[in-house]
Specification:
With 588 residues, this protein is an alpha+beta fold. The chain is built from 17 helices and 30 strands. The chain is globular, with a radius of gyration of 23 Å. The relative contact order is 0.12.
């Protein structure tokens, strides 16, 4: 399928190591994929769902011990320890290769090795990059088919001589969590993953390549790989402005990316278009502005809570050609169900573990809280017509956000790019089910990249500052939002979902200099009356409350930031310490 010797000799080397019985190169053809789907159904790896109700859809269950990313078993193996930074797990690459080689030795005996060439980003785009994943899992092959542009086209994009591709090796091995490793060798363009079958650990194009390896490449090559959705807001005159927004996993990126405008905006003719829901690759274009592509071709979205009201576009996207993972299986009509889909759980069902489950009487959950759908972007009713554009889209605003019950206001704007980098660097959020570990604990998650930055986080902040210098006055404006403030009873105050557009409208008005702001100790905020609440049953006073900056809480916050910053030592850019000093002074 290719004459590229770099690819061929590396695949040969890995065959020699893993010793598969058979090797199959994925060409991307429907015939080949259908053969694999049929085979996965025959072995029980996947279940074919109701062809009338969910055409081309399948259900898969992972091992019970294998339902989320494993941050404590994820490594960045740079030659020098300090290059991985204080937040990443590190091991000497020589030691790690040695340890892993022993584990991969003969691991595919009796199995087939699938060779998946794939392209992250539109075929033919200068922003796109190629990877090759070797795996012994058909589930991985079929997910990669949805999430990337895969097959022959990717090898054609790479060409016959290039060596610029990411070498990904994956084996489920025994799915032994004690021996699970998700390992990145950024200096070798390589990812080795073993003993998992869960999405973020094994779909190597996604977090492993498109964030960890790509963030490292971006630093060296002068571009950015970010954990961001990309959406376009089209005004009634037909002009579209694009926003990139970073939120930690399972904090609503997919919902924001696909939002349905509230009636006030819909009736005026506003529309929202989705470019991406998880990852943005951004470069400075010939015009000096920041341009972004979504490197992925599908959505790997959280199923629970997705419904006709919260995200009708995502729901529509999952109606065909979708793989569901760890949701409940409705045996009456061979469809799927998850908590928050509707108020009518099936009585005759299997839960995500495959046990008999009655949704009406059981106290157990039917779907795992981190159950997922893998759905083709082209199914999405609001997919942007720029989705496949090799140039990407120009970004007007960058938005950071997290899940914070108090502290962070509904929205504020940074005073400058430098201050914006500070705002991103101090992001904090309550943890979710997307990674193993306790849920609901506040942790610092700079730019939502804490689990995904492939090098020293201090250098990463430095790279952001560099990009700002290059962008100059063409830099996007930077904002922070928080949809998750709660009242004394713990209820969310802001309605969220589609109504978040009301905040995006203020953000875009700021980018176009069409609305004033008030200066606060933490940055610029809207006047409460400038957030449009027409049609909502909250008042301007509620908005004022949501915008309130509690100086005591922020003084605690700045102490927390100071602590957090300490670990970066002299690799923390001095600009950020200056910003922290300014914040402390403003709070006096
Ligand atoms: O599991 S993934 O890492 O692919 C999804 C996420 O956690 O954002
Ligand atoms: Mn994500």
């Amino acid at each position: 399928m290719t004459k590229n010797q770099n690819v061929l000799s590396w695949v040969d080397e890995m065959i020699e190591l893993c010793k598969p019985d058979k090797v199959v190169w994925l060409d991307g053809s429907q015939e080949q994929l259908q053969t694999l789907r049929d085979e996965a159904c025959a072995t029980g790896e996947m279940i074919k769902l109701n062809e009338e109700k969910l055409p081309g859809c399948y259900l898969h269950r992972t091992a019970v011990n294998d339902v989320a990313r494993v941050e404590h078993r994820t490594f960045i193996c740079t030659r020098k320890k300090e290059d991985a930074g204080p937040i990443n797990n590190w091991e000497d690459p020589v030691v790690m290769y040695d340890r892993l080689r022993k584990m991969y030795d003969g691991v595919m005996k009796g199995r087939t090795m699938y060779v998946i060439p794939y392209c992250m980003g539109p075929i033919g785009s200068k922003l796109s990059k190629v990877g090759v994943e070797l795996t012994d899992s058909i589930y991985v092959v079929l997910n990669m088919d949805i999430m990337t542009r895969m097959g022959k086209q990717a090898l054609e994009h790479l060409g016959d001589t290039s060596n610029d591709f990411v070498r990904g090796l994956h084996s489920k091995a025994d799915v032994d969590e004690e021996k699970r490793y998700i390992v990145h060798f950024p200096e070798d363009n390589a990812i080795w993953s073993i003993n998992s079958g869960y999405g973020g650990n094994v779909l190597l194009g996604k977090k492993c390549f498109a964030l960890r390896i790509a963030s490292y490449q971006g630093k060296n090559e002068g571009w950015m790989a970010e954990h961001m959705l990309i959406l376009g807001v089209e005004n009634p005159q037909g002009e579209t402005k694009y926003i990139a927004a970073a939120f930690p996993s399972a904090c609503g990126k997919t919902n924001l990316a696909m939002l349905i405008p509230p009636e006030v905006y819909k009736k005026q003719g506003y529309k929202v278009w989705t470019v991406g829901d998880d990852i943005a690759w951004m470069r400075i274009g010939d015009d000096g502005r920041l341009w972004a592509i979504n490197p992925e071709a599908g959505f790997f979205g959280v199923a629970p809570g997705t419904n006709e009201k919260s995200n009708p576009n995502a729901l529509a996207t999952t109606k065909r050609g979708t793989i569901f993972t760890n949701v409940a299986h409705n045996l009456d009509d061979n469809t799927v169900w998850w908590e928050g889909l509707d108020k009518n759980p099936p009585e005759h069902a299997k839960d995500w573990k495959g046990n008999d489950w009655n949704g009406k009487t059981s106290t157990e959950k039917g779907a795992n809280p981190n159950s997922r759908f893998t759905a083709p972007a082209k199914n999405c009713p609001c997919i942007s017509d720029k989705f496949n554009d090799p140039l990407g889209v120009p970004i007007s605003a960058i938005v950071f956000g997290g899940r914070r019950a108090k502290t962070a206001p509904l929205v504020y704007q940074s005073r400058s790019w430098q201050h914006g980098v500070f705002v991103g660097s101090i992001m904090a959020s309550e943890t979710t089910a997307a990674a193993t570990g306790a849920v609901g604990v506040v942790r610092r998650d700079p730019m939502a990249m804490r689990p995904f930055c492939g090098y020293h986080m201090g250098d990463y902040f430095g790279h952001w500052l560099e990009m700002g210098k290059k962008l100059g006055n063409k830099a996007p404006k930077i904002f922070n939002v928080n949809w998750f403030r709660t009242d004394d009873e713990g209820h969310f105050i802001w309605p969220g979902f589609g109504d978040n557009m009301r905040v995006l409208m203020w953000i875009l008005a700021r980018c176009e200099d069409k609305v004033d702001a008030v200066e606060t100790p933490i940055g610029y905020e809207p006047k409460p009356e400038d957030i449009n609440i027409e049609g909502l049953d909250i008042t301007t006073d509620t908005v004022a409350g949501l915008l309130d900056v509690d100086k005591d809480l922020w003084r605690e916050e700045s102490a927390g930031i100071e602590d957090f910053y300490k670990q970066f030592g002299d690799r923390l850019p001095k600009e950020l310490s200056e910003e922290l000093e300014t914040l402390k002074a403003n709070l006096k």
